[in-house]
Amino acid sequence: MSGPGSGVPSGGWRIVVGCDDAGLAYKERIKADLLADPRVGAVDDLGVHDGDHTAYPHIGLAAARKVAAGEADRALLVCGTGIGMAISANKVPGVRATTAHDSFSVERSVKSNNCQVLTLGQRVVGVELARLLAREWLGHVFDPASASADKVAVIDAYEENRCG
Ligand SMILES: O=C[C@H](O)[C@H](O)COP(=O)(O)O
Q1: What is the pLDDT of residues 2-59, one digit of tens each?
Q2: Which domain holds residue 42?
Q3: How confident is the model at residue 163 (pLDDT cuts 50, 70, 90)?
Q4: Ligand 1: which of 20, 83, 88 to mutate, most ligand atoms within 8 Å of CB?
Q5: One of 19, 79, 115, 163 is an active-site residue; which one?
Q6: Fewer Cβ close by (within 10 Å): the C or N end of the chain?
Q7: Residue 84 Cα to ligand 1 middle (Å)
């Protein structure tokens, strides 16, 4: 254990953020929260920015590739529902992404499923709930010695057999 909190990597979390134009306001707000959070060491903003209408799959895939390459620990992605971002990110081998709009699901996405990517829907939840979920998300860490690890390993093995 190292860094400013339990389970936080040395140097802090390296987080990629991204959105489409339907998720821009929440991405900007959560990015500001992350930059002010002592548990965060780096924030990499892949856009979109104001006036940019890049569609969600481009952003979701690019963010997931950064996680898969080890250039970031996690990604926080926002679109209208969160669903398109999750589908896109999950196409990248090694990445586990989910949409979650409640505290318990956010916690279990990390502790049960070792998800590195959380996606949120700006058209689904209020901004304060989205901010709370992003804050809580950083406090959860997967335990590779837990009973959940063997289950996640089944997914990894399937993926390795197909993509390896
Ligand atoms: O999952 C997709 C997102 O919600 C996106 O922001 C909106 O997609 P649409 O314009 O195809 O509905």
Answers
A1: 344 578 999 999 999 999 999 999 999 999 999 999 999 999 999 999 999 999 999 9
A2: 13-161
A3: confident
A4: 20
A5: 79
A6: C
A7: 6
- Quote the CA–CA distance of 8 and 112 in Å, as a whole number: 18
What's the predicted TM-score (pTM) here? 0.95
Cis peptide leading into 48, omega within 30 of 0? yes
Assess whether 79 carries a catalytic annotation.
yes
* Ligand 1 site, CB within 6 A: 20, 22, 56, 79-81, 83-84
Gap from CA of 79 to ligand 1 centroid (Å)? 6
Between 19 and 160, name the one with better pLDDT. 19
Closest CA to 82 of 114, 55, 49, 122: 122
Count of other CB atoms within 10 angstroms of residue 98: 19
Here the CATH number for the domain that contains residue 130 is 3.40.1400.10
Instruction: Give me the number of domains the chain comprises.
Output: 1
d(CA 77, CA 89): 9
Look up tokens 């481009």; give the residue. 58
In a domain, 128, yes or no: yes
Give 10 Cα–ligand 1 centroid separation in angstroms.
36
